[in-house]
Amino acid sequence: MSKLLFQQLFEKESSTYTYLVADSETREALIIDPVIETAERDLKLIMELELKVLFTLETHIHADHITGAWKIAEATGAKIGVSAAAETVGADLKISDGDQLSFGAFSVLALATPGHTSSCVCYFVDDRVFTGDTLLIRGSGRTDFQEGSAATLYKSVQRRLFTLPDETLVYPGHDYRGFTASTIGDEKRHNARLNQKIDESTFFKIMADLKLSEPAKIKVAVPANLNCGRP
Ligand SMILES: [Fe+2]
Question: Is 33 a catalytic residue?
Answer without folding.
Answer: no
